[in-house]
Amino acid sequence: MKRLYRGIFSFMLMVSCALQLGAQDTRIVPADEIPSSLRDAEAVKLTGTWETSNFSELKMALGTNGIGASNTVLAKVDLSEAFIADWTSLYVSAGFTSNGVFSGCKALKEVVMPVAEEAAHFTSFEKAFANCGALEKVDLTGCVNVETFNNAFYGCEHLATVDFGTNTAAVESSAWSSAFENCTALTHVTLPAVFVPASKVFSGCTALQEIDWTACQAVEVPVFYADMWDGVELSGVTLKLDHPQYVLFKADASWSQLNLEDLNPEPSTEFTVDASDIPSSLKKATVITLTGTWDSSAFNLLCMALMDNPAFGTSENTVLQKIDMSAVKVVEGTSLCWQGLSRYGIFRNFKVLAEVVMPAAEEAAHFTDFTMAFQNCTALKTIDLGGCSGLTSLEMAFQGCTSLEEADLSSSSALVSVDNAFESCEALASVVLPVQFPMGKNTFAYCNALKAIDWTAFEGTEVPEMSKTFFMGIDDLKAVTLSLKYESYKLFSADEDWSELNLYNTEPEKVTDFVVDASDIPSSLKKAVTVTLTGEWDSDAFNLLSMALGNNGGLFVTTNATLVTLDMSRIKVAENTPLWRQGLKEYGIFNNCTALEKVIMPTAEEAGHFTKLNKAFEGCTALRDIDLSLLTGATDVEAAFKGTAIEKADLSGCTSLGSTVGAFEGCAALQEVILPACFVADNYTFADCTGLKLIDYTAYTDTQDAPAVKNNTFSGIDDLKAVTLKVSGLNHELFEAHKIWSDFDIEYDASGISGMKSDGKGKPITVYTMDGRYVGTYAPGTDWRSYLPQRGVYIVDGKKMIRK
Questions:
Q1: Same domain, yes or no, for 8 and 66?
Q2: 158/262 same-domain check
Q3: In sequence order, which residues have a C-beta less than 8 Å from that of residue 490 and are 6 or more positions away?
């Protein structure tokens, strides 16, 4: 039957063609008899059954198959009586090129499409009418199976409206690329459900006014390509959508740049509620704007209008998304926690409430109790608490608000109870605390996203005692940065609990106390008042420390007048570590630290690894407190303590001492010195030590020669008789006979128990031999030694003494 139908139809066409032979405007072009040239045809009417290859012949006949070729004569194409073969494409190969059938037909103004049944057989319109600058309209409603419109109407400068609403096949983004690029007259477009936004699809459509995409059924916002709108004023384009899609697009920052129109809006769910006229039900409200003067009772009525049985912990509101209180006045003492037969928060369990706009700070200050106020508002992201200066309770206020990202409590210094305030706020990343903030139970428990706490407002003089569950459930407290001003930073740093957080000093310019690890020595410590060393230190590390302190810069003498305390008690010292360097100049590591008062040495084991100390503390004129007895491995100490304020130098453990030239020269405050057996006084060792009172040299036990001493060892000390020299009773005569040592006030003790120096006063002296035989009793002041029968050891008044 179909073949018979087509035969009859062809016969009628032939008759019609015969009647139109005299009409010169329209050329009848049967599919099986396509002329070799139609370049002069102003209008063509296609007949017969057309497939892709026929359209390829037609393109060559029109003369547009060459590169850059065009036809400036053809004004109308009529396909209304044409049959279209299945899978026919209007993108054809013609000669050596491939292009759209009618591309380059500059004068083509009108295209009459086949009936819908036939138009449905088209599959590709790629470049079909590209650069048909005169084309004004084309009916595409029957083209349901076209799979691509890529560049289909590129450059159609007079095309005004297009309706693709019925298409079901162009489902790929590439199918729409540049489809209407530079269609400068295009004002209205109807898009199908399958439309996929693509690059440059509406680029250059400067007259575009309306896009009807009510067929859109997207459940996610489509990709928004910026270049798809090049040259188009987005706010001037109305995009019509069905309600569900309108909601989606409206929430998108890119698509909402267009003028979106909801063609099927739902009844309004946004309400303005005055405190004097609260509706009995607001259960469908998505947005509420409050006006008037609100107190605790009014807020409770609002809660009951929004939710059934708010006292039941299981009651929920799953509709309200936003509440705006920016225009309200709040009565002083207003609570968002209702105290009736049972206690509940006004907005507890509002599951989709995402935004709360608070009253002005002056009004927000009148709120007092937020107990459970927003508990389990799992969608809540934004609420400004900065003006809530009157709050006394945040107990469970935001417990379970899993979307809340920040909380500014900077003005809430009246808070008393904060138990469970932000427990399980899994998205909470930033908190600002007020001057005073109580340490509640579970206040920030399980806030695993917490990264920053700003407590720069803290002004206390004591660290608040942290509740054991304050940060419960946060696995790594070092990931939480607690920002404090410098004085507070020092307090919190000394606290065992708070120091588990990453403490950050917001006033680095005020820092004077530094902890310096050998592996991370700052480039400058010139502002340091206290330096505490940690880690493993060797000569190179100490040299870097000296450079940082700035006391050894350049070729000339430089000083550090800031450092007061150096604490080395926690360090390990590499073996054979000197506190001296030889470079372009010779210097001690801490020389010329003129404000240095106290040096806390490492443990004896570690301090014993220090060796050469030449100039180590030379010029540290304030240095008074340092335990030299721990320097058991010290070798040369030339000028090591020259010019310091040291009062006592216990060198008794320094059994490896070498050169002592100028070791204590100019130490005017030095009063007492304890020397080891190996000590050799050298040039200016104690020169100008004008305060010297006692030298304990009892460790020297050589009985052959007095220890060496230079003429200038004690230069500058006017009266050496004012200095007591304690020596061993075994060799005191050596000192007494020495030309320099004899100038001291010598005391000796042969046994190491007690020395004896008779001053001619006191009780009689009793002498026994070592085996207990009585020798005699002698009057005070008597030279009892001359009465002893022979040389040897005797017991004199209960003490061992030797006569040589």
A1: yes
A2: yes
A3: 513
Phi, psi of 297 (to 5 degrees): -65, -40
Rg from Cα positions in the chain: 51
The three-class DSSP label of residue 770 is coil
Give the pair of three-digit tokens for residue 666.
Answer: 């100019």
Residue where one domain finishes, among candidates 89, 110, 131: 110
Distance of alpha carbon 208 from alpha carbon 159, whole angstroms: 11
- Is there a single domain that holds both residue 9 and residue 58? yes
Range of the domain at 43: 1-110
440, 464 contact by CB (below 8 A): no
The Cα-based distances of 376 to 317, 359, 400, 499, 740 in angstroms read 11, 22, 4, 32, 90
Whether residue 183 sits in one domain with residue 85: no
- Strand segments, DSSP code E, in 304-392 are 322-324, 329-330, 334-335, 337-339, 343-345, 355-357, 367-369, 382-383
Are residues 151 and 235 located together in one domain of the fold? Answer: yes
Report how far residue 415's alpha carbon sits from residue 67's, in angstroms, rounded to the nearest whole number.
80
Indicate whether 772 belongs to any domain. Answer: yes
Counting the structural domains of the chain, the total is 3
Give the integer Cα–Cα distance in Å for 375 and 395.
Answer: 10
Q: Which tokens in the block code for residue 734?
A: 């050596």
Give me the numbers of helices (H) and strands (E) for the chain, helices first please. 10, 50
How far is the C-alpha of 466 from the C-alpha of 498, rounded, in Å? 7
- What is the rounded average pLDDT of the residues 343-355? 95
Q: Are residues 163 and 223 in the same domain?
A: yes
CA distance 748 to 724: 10
641 alpha carbon, distance to own chain's centre: 47
According to DSSP H, which parts of 524-672 are helical?
539-549, 604-607
Give the type of residue at 733.
Answer: E
Alpha-carbon distances, residue 668 vs 343, 623, 651, 683 (angstroms): 77, 12, 18, 17
Residues 232, 167, single domain; the answer is yes
Beta strands in 220-336 (DSSP E): 238-241, 259-262, 270-274, 287-291, 293-294, 322-324, 329-330, 334-335
Residue 199 lies in a domain: yes
Question: Whole-angstrom Cα distance, residue 224 to residue 636?
Answer: 78
pLDDT band at 693 (very low <50, low <70, confident <90, very high): very high
Each residue's pLDDT tens digit, 413-429: 999 999 999 999 999 99
Q: What is the pLDDT of residues 129-162, one digit of tens each?
A: 999 999 999 999 999 999 999 999 999 999 999 9
- Reference 176, options 192, 160, 158; nearest CA is 192
Whether 46 is in a domain gets the answer: yes
SS3 59: helix
Q: Can you tell me the distance from the alpha carbon of 593 to that of 526, in angstroms, rounded to the nearest whole number? A: 11
